[in-house]
Each structure stands twice: as structure tokens, then as C-alpha cells.
Design a protein that fits this description.
This protein is mostly helical. The chain has helices at residues 38-51, 63-69, 72-75, 79-86, 98-104, 106-111, 113-125, 135-165, 175-201, 208-235, 243-261, 264-274, 287-294, 308-321, 329-349, 360-385, 389-393, 396-407, 417-433; strands at residues 2-7, 13-20. A two-stranded antiparallel sheet has the order 1-2. Residues 1-21 and 277-300 have low confidence and may be disordered.
Length: 446
């Protein structure tokens, strides 16, 4: 492995150094932590520079202005930038997939949840779109992308408030543990959204349940993260005049509208339709197929086809298998979580399906199950193919899985004290180095 230093727009080095393996010619389907193309990062930085410092009260794109008057009038000036990201490369644009588009526009989505989301949707609606037959699904997934980005902004504001406030009030450090759990939830949102967006341009004939899960799970998790940020800012002494607090409150209030615009009800209906057969006759066991899919590219370095749901269920099966008699420590804990999830899958998809209040409730539980499978798959590929040292270490995975088990009301697993401490340390590190809360620890300008 080599040490790669990313560059910022000024040409000075980024403060972030991450250890990465050589990225394969064809990125594995769940390698959400794969380094972004340098051109995408540069375009995102340029957009962030256009938006200016969010802390500047005189900045029309700043948190103070957005919290008081909204961003529709100001954001219209960025129409050309947005349009270039959704226009295919062959016609002078940059579009190379939904995941790349979301990364390039992330500074806008971070800055203003509702108006940023609406501006991109309006641009997609005004054209045939980069993927005419899948524009509706892409538009829906912009909701989870925007929610993840905005929740990251709120989380960073809360972490900064604790870091500054505990110098005067040491008791505020108690919020670090809850913010670390929010960070693990945010990494779940980021992983699920990135993989769902990738599935639209790679074997889009499968993955409908995966994309529906993103529409169900991310809005709920983002709302929790935003609420936690609001509580933390209040505890740290931010009052009604605080631009950060007002921005977080306004953003939290916009979550239901973005959820509705993202078609959460349709996502739930898709999961209800998929439940009887999603895991397949073998409960998702397709080891030979999984090996073939991940074993290498097709001729000419073309991406091999991916059966997204089969892959996801295979990741769960593999996690259970790793928890054999010799498993210890974190592997044993993850295996216990995986066993809980496997039992849940049998209840939802097995021959003796029996979920109280089947329908919407079963769909929500299945969405949580698929999300946990995404965590396992993303953690596996980050460890196997490189990415940030933190994601590759897998330390966040037990915390995320324990949260998933808790949300499903299953017997608890853990505590994963060492993993929790590692997540707290990473969150503190990103705060000190000015890094985003995304999968790549991207350097941010402000």
C-alpha cells in the first residue's frame, strides 16, 4: 500500500493522508469507499468555493442567510453548474453515474437540504436526463443523497460545538459517545446511498429492493442525526441567535418534505412486493455466483453483471460463517449480530414467514435488514480493496450492526467498547483536520 495525499484547489496538500490499495480497473460493486476520480473532487471543491464560507453572515449562501430567507433565489445562480453534472459527457457534461453526480454536487446538498435537492430535481425534470429510463429512480435517490450530506453538516457543527464548549464545561464530553453513534449511523446512510446510486448504472435490472431500502431507511436515520445535533448544540449553549442551530432546526423541519418527494411510500410498496422472493429459494445463498461476480472483470475490463440482492444476502451468510468455533473478539461479535439478522431474514422471507402487522411493518424491517447487509458488504470490500484506513479497519461495522439489531428489537449484541472508541477517535480526527463525514473523509474548505 502507498500513502496518497489528495490535493486541494489551492494546490496545497490536503491535511488528510489515507492509506489505499491499488484500485482495481473495475470497482467491486460494494466498494463504496473507492477513491473518487480526481476531477470529481476538484469540481466539488470549485462548487464549494462558489458557495463561500457558510459561517459568513454576509454570504447569501451562508447558514445565516439560508436559515432566515431560504436559498431558492440564490441557488438559481448555480443552474449552469448543476446542469453540467447531469448532462452526459458526450454532450459536454460530466455525468458518469448517479454516485459520481451526487459526489460532485455534495457541497450544494450539504449547504441547503430542501433547495439544493429541489434545484437538482428541477434540472433533471427539465431534460431527458442522463438515464431516460431510470430518471425517476435517480431523482428519488437524490433525497437520500441530500439527507446524508445535510446530516453530515449538522453532525460536524455538533462535534465542533462540543470541542469548543468542553474547554469551558468539561461535562459536555459526555455527548461524544452519542455523536459517535450518530456518525456510525451516518456512515450507514452514506454506504446505502452510494451503493444504491451505483446500482442504477450497473446491472440496474436488479437492485430495486436495495434502492427502495435507501428511500425508507436514510430519511429516518438522517432525522435522528439532525435531532441529536440540535440537542447537542442547545446543550453547548447555542441559543436562538445561533446560525448553526437555526440552520439545523430548519434542515430538520425539511426532512419530511424531502422524504415525501423521494417517494418513500413507493419504496415501501416495492419492498412489500419483493418480500416473498427477495432472498431466493436458498435464503440468498449463492456462493459460487458471488465468487464469479467478485472474481474479476469481464473481457475488456467491463463490469460483470451484479445481482444486487443476491450479493447482499451472500454477505450476511458469509458473516455468519466467519463466526465459527475459532472466532474471537470483534469477529465473534459481528457473527452474533449476523446470526440475529439471519434469524430475522428467516422470519421475513422463509417458508414460515410470520411478521406481526405484515405489509408496511414487514417492509420497514426488510429495509433495515438489507441495510445491515450493505454495511457488511461495504466493510468487507473496504478491507479487501483499500479506501480510508478507518473504513478498511472495519471498526465502525460492529457499532453500525449493533444499532441495526437494536432498531429491529432483537436481542442486543456488544458492547463493542473498542470499536466505539475508534469511531469517536475518527470523528474527532475529522473535526481537527477539516474533513467531511462521508466515506472518503473528503477535505472541505470551510
Amino acid at each position: 500500500m502507498g500513502m496518497i495525499q489528495t490535493q486541494d484547489p489551492s494546490g496545497q496538500g490536503s491535511l488528510l493522508r489515507v492509506e489505499r490499495a491499488v484500485t482495481p480497473a473495475v470497482v467491486p460493486p460494494f466498494h463504496a469507499a473507492a477513491p473518487l476520480p480526481a476531477a470529481v473532487t476538484q469540481r466539488a471543491w470549485r462548487l464549494e468555493a462558489l458557495l463561500g464560507d457558510p459561517r459568513d453572515r454576509a454570504n447569501p449562501y451562508g447558514h445565516y442567510a439560508l436559515a432566515h430567507q431560504g436559498g431558492r433565489r440564490q441557488l438559481s445562480a448555480l443552474a449552469d453548474v448543476i446542469e453540467s453534472e447531469i448532462r452526459p459527457a458526450g454532450t459536454g457534461g460530466h455525468f458518469a453515474g448517479g454516485d459520481v453526480m451526487a459526489a460532485a454536487l455534495r457541497p450544494l446538498l450539504r449547504r441547503d437540504l430542501e433547495e439544493g435537492h429541489a434545484a437538482v430535481v428541477a434540472a433533471l425534470s427539465a431534460t431527458d436526463g442522463p438515464l431516460p429510463d431510470r430518471t425517476v429512480e435517480l431523482t428519488r435517490l437524490l433525497g437520500p443523497a441530500a439527507l446524508s450530506a445535510a446530516a453530515g453538516t449538522a453532525l460536524r457543527a455538533a462535534v465542533r460545538a462540543v470541542a469548543e464548549g468542553e474547554r469551558r464545561t468539561p461535562g459536555l464530553s459526555r455527548w461524544r459517545a452519542s455523536l459517535a453513534r450518530s456518525f456510525a449511523d451516518l456512515l450507514v446512510c452514506e454506504s446505502l446511498t452510494a451503493v444504491a446510486l451505483r446500482s442504477l448504472s450497473r446491472s440496474p435490472g436488479t437492485g430495486r429492493s436495495l434502492r427502495a431500502a435507501a428511500g425508507c431507511v436514510v430519511p429516518a436515520l438522517a432525522a435522528e442525526i439532525l435531532d441529536e445535533a440540535v440537542l447537542t448544540l442547545g446543550e453547548c449553549g447555542h441559543g436562538p441567535d445561533s446560525a448553526a442551530l437555526r440552520w439545523c432546526v430548519r434542515t430538520a423541519a425539511g426532512v419530511p418534505r424531502v422524504r415525501e418527494a423521494s417517494g418513500t411510500a413507493d419504496c415501501r410498496a416495492q419492498l412489500i412486493r419483493a418480500l416473498p422472493s427477495s432472498a431466493g429459494p436458498g435464503g440468498g445463498r449463492a456462493a459460487a455466483h458471488l465468487t464469479a461476480v467478485r472474481g474479476g472483470a469481464a473481457a475488456g475490463d467491463e463490469a460483470p453483471p451484479v445481482d444486487w440482492e443476491t450479493e447482499l444476502h451472500g454477505a450476511l451468510d458469509a458473516a455468519v460463517a466467519r463466526g465459527g468455533p475459532g472466532a474471537a473478539g470483534r469477529d465473534a461479535g459481528q457473527a452474533r449480530a449476523a446470526q440475529r439478522l439471519l434469524a430475522e431474514r428467516r422470519l421475513l422471507t422463509g417458508p414460515d414467514r410470520n411478521v406481526p402487522g405484515a405489509g408496511a411493518a414487514a417492509a420497514e424491517r426488510y429495509a433495515q435488514l438489507l441495510t445491515a447487509c450493505v454495511v457488511l458488504a461495504v466493510g468487507r470490500d473496504a478491507a479487501g480493496h483499500g479506501g480510508s484506513r478507518f473504513l478498511g479497519s472495519g471498526g465502525w461495522v460492529p457499532v453500525a450492526l449493533a444499532r441495526a439489531v437494536q432498531r429491529l428489537g432483537l436481542p442486543p449484541v456488544g458492547p463493542f467498547d473498542a470499536a466505539q472508541a475508534g469511531v469517536e477517535a475518527e470523528l474527532d480526527r475529522r473535526d481537527r483536520l477539516g474533513a467531511d463525514s462521508d466515506l472518503h473523509a473528503t477535505r472541505i474548505l470551510w
